């Protein structure tokens, strides 16, 4: 099944009429993950008619307000909707204490558990894993500690070649072993290579979220061959000095990362509110990478 990414906000720092602040919802067949959670994000779920009750994990890249101020409102909305399922929040240490204080102050007694998983930005590490996917966090380079996230699908099982099965007598108890990649051993000892029995695996899906970072090629190893790469592009080339001073990236730098990482598609966003027209971002990114999408609020990307 395809994955879908919904853009809930594509601007940085100051909201405009056209662009709200950071938030992206990734839906896979089995998961609903929210990456960053800017102010008023629950209104955008309503505005775009997006089901959000099933969000089970929220990943917060860093503690700048344009990435975090929506957490409290969203949790309160879950509470009002009588959520009972636990909610996992991946963030640097400290948010748990702030949530505790806010909900105490507002006399909100949550009926569901908030489970905080602390990030740290010292190295690439697996922060969540199940039978379908794994999620890594890895350090970005920003003014305060900041992590990117990489979600990658796991190869569960190989599909069997029907034609081969029809023409050969394969005992039932062998089927799951073959799907796991074993070669088939016939009763007479002859070995049939797994590649003749199974179909080549389809390319695995993956998504990387690189929010708020200066140009930082050290991340490339963490996101190699990613299918959809989101990388911030706050400025155009004319404002490169601002990018350097504020530890953000230009569109062209984001595209250089996409090339180095051998990404399939580059999605850029977190555009500075000073830009009304963002065509220049696409033009400059395309000088380095061929397949570029500029994020727009409400956009869906299926991959
Ligand atoms: Zn930001
Ligand atoms: Zn920031």
Description:
The protein is an alpha/beta fold. It folds into two domains: 4-154 and 204-302, 4-Layer Sandwich (Metallo-beta-lactamase, Chain A); 162-196, no CATH class. 23% of the residues lie in helices and 24% in strands. The strands form three sheets. It has a seven-stranded mixed β-sheet, with helices on one face. It has a seven-stranded mixed β-sheet with strand order 7-8-9-12-13-14-15, covered by helices on one side. A two-stranded antiparallel sheet has the order 10-11. Strand 3 (32-35), helix 1 and strand 4 form a beta-alpha-beta unit. It is globular and about 70 Å long. Bound molecules: zinc ion (ZN) (2 copies). Residues 62, 64, 142, 212 line the site of one zinc ion.
């Amino acid at each position: 099944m395809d994955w879908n990414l919904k853009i809930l906000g594509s601007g940085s720092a100051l909201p405009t009429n056209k662009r709200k602040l950071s938030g992206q919802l990734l839906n896979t067949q089995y998961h609903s993950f929210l990456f960053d959670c800017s102010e008023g994000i629950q209104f955008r779920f309503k505005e775009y008619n997006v089901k959000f009750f099933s969000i089970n994990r929220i990943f917060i890249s860093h503690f700048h307000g344009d990435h975090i101020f929506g957490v409290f409102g969203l949790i309160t909305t879950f509470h009002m909707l009588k959520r009972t399922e636990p909610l996992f929040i991946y963030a640097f240490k400290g948010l748990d204490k702030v949530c505790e204080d806010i909900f105490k102050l507002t006399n909100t007694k949550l009926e569901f558990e908030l489970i905080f998983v602390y990030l740290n930005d010292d190295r690439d590490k697996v922060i969540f894993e199940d039978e379908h996917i794994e999620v890594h966090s890895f350090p970005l380079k920003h003014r305060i500690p900041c992590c990117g996230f990489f979600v990658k699908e796991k190869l569960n099982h190989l599909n069997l070649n029907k034609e081969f099965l029809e023409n050969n007598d394969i005992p039932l108890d062998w089927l799951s072993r073959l799907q796991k990649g074993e070669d088939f051993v016939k009763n007479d000892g002859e070995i049939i290579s797994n590649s003749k029995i199974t179909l080549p695996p389809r390319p695995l899906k993956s998504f990387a979220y690189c929010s708020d970072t200066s140009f930082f090629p050290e991340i490339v190893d963490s996101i190699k061959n990613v299918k959809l790469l989101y990388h911030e592009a706050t400025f155009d080339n004319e404002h490169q000095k601002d990018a350097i001073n504020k530890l953000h990236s230009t569109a062209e730098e984001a595209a250089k990362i996409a090339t180095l990482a051998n990404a399939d598609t580059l999605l850029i966003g977190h555009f500075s509110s000073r830009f009304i027209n963002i065509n220049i971002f696409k033009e400059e990114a395309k000088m380095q990478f061929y397949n570029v999408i500029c994020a727009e609020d409400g956009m869906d990307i299926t991959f």
